[in-house]
Amino acid sequence: MKFPVVIAALLALLSPSFALAAAVVTPISQIQTGSLIRGTTFAAVYYLGRDGFRYVFPNDKTYFTWYADFSSVKFVSDADLAKIQIGGNVTYRPGTRMVKINSDPKVYAVDEDGSLRWMMSEDIAIGTYGAAWNTKIDDVPDAFFGNYRAGANVESPADFVPASVSASTPDINDDKRLKSATVLNISDDSFDNASVTIKAGSPVRWFNNGANKHTATATDLSWGTGTITPGGNFARYFNDPGTYTFFCSYHPEMKAVVIVE
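Above: the chain sequence. Below: its structure as tokens.
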């Protein structure tokens, strides 16, 4: 069953008043990071990350490793939802359940940030998850397996303690190690900060506070924000150290630099 269908059905079954709440639309300016949000037209639910991106729950099984129900979901307008960039997919909450794919007999524990750790034997699985370990395995569709990454094997129950792992990742912000974006405002004649310095693996968000269209385009044209309309914004992560110079393609005299350490 597709996830949006599951949500629509469960909202009706679990909370009869939720359909009425759908009419209560919260301005995006009042939504806090770490919130669950959805639009008014489609039933898909997203996690609003600390970095300002929205993260997708690829299916219902992933969602329910993090939340028991949909009572905390906030409605935003479709227009506001469209303004929030998608940052990626949510993975299983670490320590809750194990996963596998149909084409691979290996069973994996899920650790922080979608790290998959192979349970090397049945005895290890029993020692880690108990005698009913084989009831705590979900098949992850092949299409979603790429959301995860390889981690160290679990060679003994001491290598992976589910309760401890789960407690160390209380929310998706912590699990994905999301960081708040450094803000770089744009006016109609300049980038307000000609130079910003950030740590590798951090995002920068450009806000267009002017009346004209602007961009932040790499000097070597290797990356860019695309057109940012007045009142709009765009963010991207800078994962590698270096000096990233950029300009506005509408106003080439507007230049600035991001230094990544």
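The two ends are 45 Å apart (CA to CA).
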